[in-house]
Amino acid sequence: MDLLTEQDTVEAALLDSCRTGDVAAFATLVDTYKDRIYNMAFRYLGRHEDAEDVAQETFVRAYRGIQDFEGRSRVYTWLYSIAGNLARNHVRDRARKGRNQAVSLDQISDRGAALAQDFGAAAETPGTLAQAHELQDLLQQCVEELPEHYRLVFILRTYEGLTYDEIAEAVRCPRGTVKSRLNQARVQLRDRLKAMSVL
Amino acid sequence: MKLYEACEEVQEEFSALLDDELDPAEVEGVEAHLSTCAECLRELDSLKKMHTVYGALPAVSAPAGFHVTTEETSKSTPISLRVDPRHTRMKSYKPLFAAAAMFLLIATMWGAMQMASREDVATTGTEASASDSVFNVALVETETSETAADAVGTLEKKSMSAAPEPPVASHVAAETTGAEGISAKRMMAVEEDAVTASPSFETPMEPERRFATKRVDNRDIWTQEGYADQAVMTLTQDSPELRDILSGNPNLAKIVNVVDEVVFEYEDRWYRVSQ
Questions:
Q1: How far is CA A151 from each of CA A111, A183, A185, rounded to the nearest angstrom?
Q2: Which residue among A57, B113, B125, B145 is least crowded, i.e. fewest CB within 10 A of its CB?
Q3: How far are the Cα atoms of A115, A172, B54 from residue A108, in angstroms, in the given order?
């Protein structure tokens, strides 16, 4: 039995237990995926309180819908699918109420020069560079400015490490669309960072 | 080997190349193009740099107290309470007192609701008086009062099971309906943002499950959206205006006495009371 099959079997057993109303099994499911879902939501929304809301609601909905989850996709792509939709709705809701906090890149572009200096100093160690708090904020804001359909695939790939097939499953679009959106997302991000002299 | 005719065509493959998602023939074709095109090489290099920077960002984890609450899960895991630190602080030095007070309040209110309900039946045509004043109350327990919060949750469930016809939402933090002529203004979880990807996930709930999950939703509404856009007037404990409001609303008075900070709506205006 290879690793993937073993993982599938464990996951299937966990889901079966959840479907029978086994609370401990569901708690295990939450425990297994909460960090991933939270991280995705945070990268999408940029605020911890919003990420927590979305992550919690994701699991509440998963709990309600677990009977209908047929297991044809991986459970985490299903959870990402729910979380992605909730996050998107959250952004729209905030926009309706005029409470989106995304800062226009025009407003932050004056920080680019200073960050570029840091970048120049640490260009050979981008890992170190990314630790810089301010740059993290700026990178996050750039992601938040991506169009929604680009943003989700970018997050699922970059932060969550999903394959294109898994992203296609979570976003419910063809693999080719994932590939194209991801490329567009990266080109946009690269161009924005370049415009701010960060790259 | 796949042949690429234009730079644009090759550049569309760069992202997948970085992700190792191209098949060998595509990789071979892209590399062949790159060996003769300095512009595409620069393009790929800049994308690679951006890719590396983003890839180095640390993951964030769910907070330590992260829990998901449904009726079933709450039996074995702590009730998850949303905390709005801006507006809601239970007196940290009196968690048990608070739990007891909450219990009394819930019991009182439930009894009052039953009495009011019977009175309504007995005195037909008098419902106008019950809607003279309307208030909503927002309060949330803090992390330090989880014991109290759990107790409240448990007690609520007990009161639910004891009730012949459980109310749809009887949580004290969500709404109250008192005998003193206060009609609750319901803030139900608004499902206008239906999850389009999973419509079939919405399954009919038994009353208990609906109650439990709705309570969480209600708390979201209350703490984050119920009054976030409202002008909120701050009242001190000894202000005549507050005394005037509380004199006609003893249930609200009990809440104000228990919680450090309460935000409520009364006759279409929002008030905050701090200790």
A1: 23, 11, 7
A2: B125
A3: 11, 34, 18
Most confidently predicted of B64-78, B106-120, B152-166: B64-78
Q: How far is CA A37 from CA A31, A59, A84, A159, B57, in A?
A: 11, 9, 9, 11, 16
What does the pLDDT look like over B65-106, one tens digit per residue? 887 776 554 444 332 323 233 333 333 333 444 455 455 555
Q: Is B125 exposed, middle or buried, given 0-12, 13-18 or 19+ CB atoms closer than 10 A?
A: exposed
Contact of A34 with chain B, judged by CB distance below 8 Å, is answered with: yes
Which residues of B fall within a CB distance of 8 Å from A186? 14-15, 18, 47, 50-51
Asked whether the CA dihedral B235, B239, B241, B245 is positive or negative, the reply is: positive
Q: Is B10 in contact with B40 (CB distance < 8 Å)?
A: yes
Residues in chain B: 275
Residue with the bigger pLDDT between B219 and A40: it is: A40
Token look-up 């042949």 returns B3
Structural tokens at position B98: 């608070």
Q: What is the pLDDT of residues A133-153, one digit of tens each?
A: 778 888 999 999 999 999 999
CA A96 to chain centre: 22
**What pTM, to 2 d.p., does this model score?**
0.55
Which tokens sit at A161? 């490490």
Average pLDDT, chain B: 56
Distance in angstroms (rounded) separating the CA atoms of residues B223 and B155: 22
Are the Cβ atoms of B50 and A26 closer than 8 angstroms? no
Distance CA A184, CA A147 (A): 10
